[in-house]
Design a protein that fits this description.
With 503 residues, the protein is mainly β. The protein has 2 domains: 182 residues; 229 residues. The chain is 4% helix and 40% strand. The protein is built from 3 helices and 42 strands. The protein has a 38-stranded parallel β-sheet that branches. A 4-stranded parallel β-sheet has the order 28-32-35-38, with no helix packed on it. Strand 1, helix 2 and strand 2 form a beta-alpha-beta unit. It is elongated and about 80 Å long. The chain starts with a helix and ends with a helix.
Length: 503
């Protein structure tokens, strides 16, 4: 007997975990421990679980439940709430089509019934909690967490959130201040009338998430922030933000605000925004936005309100009104010493700019744009190279290609901008003064391509003193500086890569 008691005491806690079941035809007076005797409400299940337990919730409409967790999981023994369609563990995929209604037969659905109030799932002060495979609609907030840690929300679709008569109300998935080491993945938010997905904490991951807003609600309540980060060592990847139609708010796509250091956004897309990707506020520094794509936006790569020492790299911008933008706004970070300082934009491709490629925009707090650098970009087809509406000091471009730009500058403020080792071809202005600048046909592999051909004068034409970072790659992922001197533009010629040689 003593041996058996000792054995039980030594067993890992996960072996003692229990599986429970919830279904819309269940009963909270049932045992809940068998699929044939499920509980009725998810809220009741939250009061019964301990670390290591899993609650399987069958598809159906669970009405306006407000789910509040009161206990924590533990490392290796999270508390899991997992939706299923017909068989526990079947991991239903929603494939939600923007603008349609949710189908409760696919996965468990929380229907708040009133988008002006209520939180569907609250994880405040909770740790090691997993919510997976749920649909949420018509609450003020889909998922809200403050001071949550080591928790996961996975495959959550949250739509129509917030008061449509209020200009800033309604959030999709929010992990507010002091939230650390959480994961938000495979989630979709549609028509949250303030914020889609936001995180303010450290070491959090947003992976494969999408946020949309369209005019299928009052235009006054359109989404402001689609995906926004604050905090340190956070990571967004494989994500997507799209503003659909001519909404009242221009929309902030994917970026950093308030405070953020040593964080990364990569492999993501932002469409039709006032600011597709952004660094914002003076405590935002040492962050990177990489391999991202901005389309059809008013402002694509945005630095503002004091952001400094950040990097855009290996990004593409197409059909922007302004492609690279600097401005400072009243009532934001009014203590910031300047608009933006010592940021870098490199290895990026900018095409079909409707107005100006580089905008020192006058909006709306006077301050200076200082010491920002543009390296190895290719610009093709724009109305203006510059919009000069605010004081700019010692900003520069190197190792770049500028083609088919109709005019040099618009605006009344003097430009303090230098060029070196850059090529200017078929533009509506003369080649700027600067060391190593050229005016020759770059000999791209074909019309519309930005790969340089075997005979291109862009090969080894960059600054011979330029030292690339060890992890620098061109727009195709080829290592920078293959033949001792960097090439001009986004493409480092590599004779062993077919796309460079034969496109």
């Amino acid at each position: 007997m003593k041996f058996l008691l000792l054995l039980l005491f030594c067993l890992p806690l996960s072996i003692l975990a229990t599986d429970y079941y919830v279904a819309v035809d269940g009963d909270d007076a049932a045992s809940g421990v068998a699929i044939s005797s499920p509980w009725r409400t998810i809220s009741f299940a939250t009061s019964q679980v301990i670390a290591g337990d899993t609650v399987f919730i069958k598809a159906g409409d669970y009405g306006g439940e407000n789910i509040v967790l009161t206990v924590n999981g533990s490392a290796g023994n999270p508390i899991t709430f997992e939706g299923y369609q017909t068989i526990p563990g079947d991991n239903p995929q929603n494939n939600y089509v923007v603008g349609t209604l949710l189908d409760p037969s696919i996965m468990p659905t929380l229907n708040g019934g009133d988008r002006t109030t209520g939180i569907a799932i609250e994880l405040t002060d909770r740790s090691y909690i997993v919510f997976k495979n749920f649909q949420i609609h018509d609450y003020s907030a889909g998922i809200y967490a403050h001071a949550a840690t080591h928790s996961v929300v996975d495959n959550i679709t949250a739509i129509t959130l917030g008061d449509v008569n209020n200009n800033y109300s309604g959030v999709g998935i929010v992990f507010s201040s002091s939230t650390d080491s959480n994961t938000i993945k495979n989630c979709l938010v549609y028509n949250a009338a303030a914020e889609g997905i936001s995180v303010a904490g450290n070491n959090n991951l947003i992976d494969n998430c999408k946020v949309y807003c369209d005019d299928n609600q009052t235009v006054h309540s359109s989404t402001d922030y689609y995906i926004v980060l604050a905090g340190n060592n956070n990571h967004v990847k494989n994500s997507y933000a799209q503003r659909i139609g001519n909404l009242e708010h221009g929309g902030h796509g994917i970026g950093f605000k308030d405070f953020a250091q040593d964080s990364l956004i990569e492999d993501s897309t932002s469409v039709n925004m006032a600011g597709s990707f952004y660094f914002r506020y003076s405590p935002v520094f040492n962050n990177t936005i990489r391999n991202c794509h901005a389309k059809d936006s008013d402002e694509s790569l945005l630095m503002r309100d004091g952001a400094h020492h950040n990097t855009f790299e290996n990004c593409t911008v197409d059909n922007a009104y302004y492609a690279i933008v600097f401005y400072d706004s009243m009532g934001e970070d009014d203590g910031a010493p300047n608009t933006a300082e010592a940021n870098v934009i490199k290895n990026s491709l900018i095409t079909n700019t409707r107005q100006a490629v580089i905008a020192f925009h006058q909006y709306n707090r006077p301050s200076d744009v200082v010491n920002n650098r543009i390296e190895n970009i290719t610009i093709d087809n724009a109305l203006y190279l510059f919009h000069s509406g605010r004081v700019n000091i010692n900003n520069s471009m190197t190792n770049s290609i500028v083609t088919n730009v109709a005019n040099y500058s618009i605006g009344s403020v003097a430009l303090d901008f230098s060029f070196d080792y850059s090529n200017f071809w078929t533009n509506g202005f003369t080649i700027p003064v600067g060391s190593g600048n050229l005016a020759v046909d770059p000999l791209f592999t074909q019309a519309g391509s930005h790969y340089i051909s075997v005979n291109s004068p862009m090969k080894n034409a960059g600054n011979p003193s330029y030292i690339a970072d060890a992890d620098d790659v061109d727009i195709n992922g080829d290592k920078r500086i293959i033949n001792s001197i960097i090439d001009m533009g986004v493409d480092e010629y590599n004779e062993f890569i077919m796309s460079d040689s034969f496109e």
